[in-house]
Amino acid sequence: MAVPFRNVSKTRRDKRRTHYKITANSLVECTNCGAKIRPHRACPKCGFYKGADTLKEEVNKVNEEKKASKKVSKKSE
């Protein structure tokens, strides 16, 4: 196994690590309620994304799927 011939100095090590830093997440305001949210995500408070209420749409999809599965199960009986 290869081993370094000399120790890496503190300066050289720290120069290499200069780009290892944490940056704060960018935040934007929700167009509907004004809450701070991360970009390109639905608002956790009101559920809006790009002018549409995504939470209501998801609930409607789930309800429609449940109704469809009940109809299929009744037909099979």
Tell me about this structure.
There is one protein chain. By secondary structure, this protein is an alpha+beta fold. The protein has a domain at 25-76. The protein contains 2 helices and 4 strands; from the N terminus they run αββββα. It has helices at 10-16, 54-76, and strands spanning 28-29, 36-37, 48-49, 52-53. The strands form 2 sheets. It has a two-stranded antiparallel ribbon with strand order 1-2. A two-stranded antiparallel ribbon has the order 3-4. 3% of the residues are buried. The model has no long low-confidence stretch (mean pLDDT 83).
Features:
39% helix; two-stranded antiparallel ribbon; 2 helices
What topology does this entry show?
Blueprint: H1 10-16, E1 28-29, E2 36-37, E3 48-49, E4 52-53, H2 54-76
Antiparallel strand pairs: 1-2, 3-4
Quick recap:
This protein has 77 residues and is of the alpha+beta class. 39% of the residues lie in helices and 10% in strands.
Instruction: Tell me the structural class.
Output: alpha+beta
Strand arrangement across the biggest beta sheet: 1-2
Can you count the beta strands? 4
Largest sheet: 2 strands, antiparallel
Measured distance between first and last alpha carbons: 69 Å
Number of discrete helical segments: 2
What's the gyration radius in Å? Answer: 26 Å
The proportion of residues in beta strands is 5-15%
- Compute the average pLDDT: 83
Element-by-element helix/strand order:
HEEEEH
Shape: elongated
Helical proportion? 25-40%
